[in-house]
Input
Amino acid sequence: METLKRKSVVYLALAHATLLESMRRKDLYVAGILAVLMIGTAATVGSFGVKGIELFLKDVALTVINLLSVVLAVLFAARQIPEEVSHRTVYPLLARPISRGDLLFGKYLGALALSVIGLLIFAAVGAGALAYYGLTLGGIFWQFLLLRVLALAVVVAMTMALSLVMTPGATVTLALLLTIGSATFSGAVKLLVPGSSPAQQILLKGAYYVLPQLNLFDLTKKVSYGWQPVAGWAMGTLTVYALLFVALFLALGALRFRRQAL
Output
């Protein structure tokens, strides 16, 4: 129990330091600037009237929220460990009674917190802009936000694992491709499997199940069309699915980090 308490304090301290460093670097100002651009766009569209294009506006607003939050999450996560190593600040951190796994998890919590803050800023701006024109998102919008948080948890863990084996530029590129192209990949696999050879089917299905299907966490269309909230068992299943991938990516990242020469 004492060990668990000590580790919890370490994780919170590392996450807090990550947040403070981000504030010092004015990272969240990027989210603020993008939010202002969203408001400007909404005002421009609204000046022409919104009657008849309500579904389109909701879909666009939610898609923008998804895209911007994912981009920020990838950028936040991709630099956490590489910058500590390149700036040599990793040495005083590890000189304390902190393992490399502890450092990775603490940084993960900080990057995730930054990503969730960015998501909430975009969501507040998007929902506020729609409400200004009399468009409501319904109760399912809260489930939309919860699933986006779960998706960001997976994205941040995956990006941090990639950052330990790739350059920062390559990490950002691959993470964005895997994240934004998730729905496209899933659709392509479903189309290719029937006409493929048995060996190719095994490879395609293996890739389908190994890579996280982040499109499962997207309720954009359901929110736009005013669906009723999703069943609790479905939300629970997706939560377990996300946590399993988070654990997998962090475990792989910790394994690589422990073997990495600093």
